[in-house]
Amino acid sequence: xxxxxxxTRWLAAGMTTIALTLGGMATAHADVSLLNVSYDVTxxxxxxxxxxxxxxxxxxxxxxxxxxxxxxxxSAQALSVLQGLQADVVTMNQPNDIDLLADKGQLLPVxxxxxxxxxxxxxxxxxxxxxRKGNPKHIVDWSDxxxxxxxxxxxxxxxxxxxxxxxxxxxxxSKQHGGTDAQALDFEKAIFKNVPVLDTGGRGATTxxxxxxxxxxxxxxxxxxxxxxxxxxxxxxxxxxxxVSLLAAPPVALVDKVVDKRGTRKEAQAYLDxxxxxxxxxxxxxxxxxxxxxxVLAKHASEFKAIRTFTVxxxxxxxxxxQQTHFSDGGTFDQIIVDxx
Length: 341
Prior knowledge:
alpha/beta, 7-stranded mixed β-sheet, disordered N terminus, 50% helix, 16% strand, D-Maltodextrin-Binding Protein, domain 2, 2 domains
C-alpha cells in the first residue's frame, strides 16, 4: 500500500506540474503583443486608439493584448518593414507604401485594399498651412508659397508621404488654374527654392517650424496643424486653409506573412476592424481627422472647415503613376532638387 501511495503522490505531483505548465502556456498565449508601424504624425492618435481597442478586446474576449507603436516618415517605415521589421499591421499615409510591401516583399496580397471598408481608409485629411501669429507674410494660398522672400517648410517628398501630398497639392493647384505641366514644374521649382530644409518626415518638419523657429509657413496635414493650433504655444501660430487642396486618404493593412508567422492574425484583424467602430471613429474625429463614418463626421461637422479637394486619382491618374512621374529617380522632384542646388 505504501508503494501505491507513493506512486499516487508522484502521479498527483506530476499532474499538478503538467497543469501548471499548461496554465502558464495558456497565459502566455493570452498575452499577445501587436506592432503597428505607422507614419510620423499619428503618435497621439494611435495612443488613444490602442487604449480603446485594448479595453474593448479584453471585455469581448477576456484576452489581454498590448500594442506597440513605431513612427517615422511613411516611406522609410515601409522600407523598414520590407527589410524585416515585424509589423502585424501597417497604418501608412499613402497606398504606395503598402503596395511596396505587396509587390516587392509579398508580405500581403496585392488586393489588400479590398479587405477592409472604404478601400481600407478609416479616415481622410488634407494639406493646409500653419503660419506665425498675425500671418506677417500674408500667406493665403499656394501661389504665396512661390513668392520671393517666403520661407516654406515641407517634408522631403522622397522620404515622406506628408511631403508628397504637399508637392502634389501644389502641382494640382497650378493645373487647376490653367497651368501646363511645364508651368506646374516651374511653380514647384519656385516653391522649393523657398524651402530652407527638407526634413525626412512630417513631425520633423513641424519641429523645424515650431521649435527651431525656421520658416514663415509649414505645409502639413490638417490634423497636425489643428494639434499645434490648439496645443501648447497655440498663441504663436494660425491655421490657414488654401482655396483648394489634395484629399489625403491614409490606408491601413494587415501584414499577412508576419501575423501568420507570429500567430497574431485574429488579434491584428480585430485591431484593424476596431478602426471602423463608432468608438474609434469618435477618437479619430477628436484628433482632427475626418472620420469615414458619416454619422460621426456629421456630429463633428462644425470642427472641420469646408475646403475644396481633388484626389490623386483625379489629378494624376493614381498613386503609381504619380510616384513614377514625380518621385522616382529622375522624376520631376529630382529635377527640382538639381536646379535648387
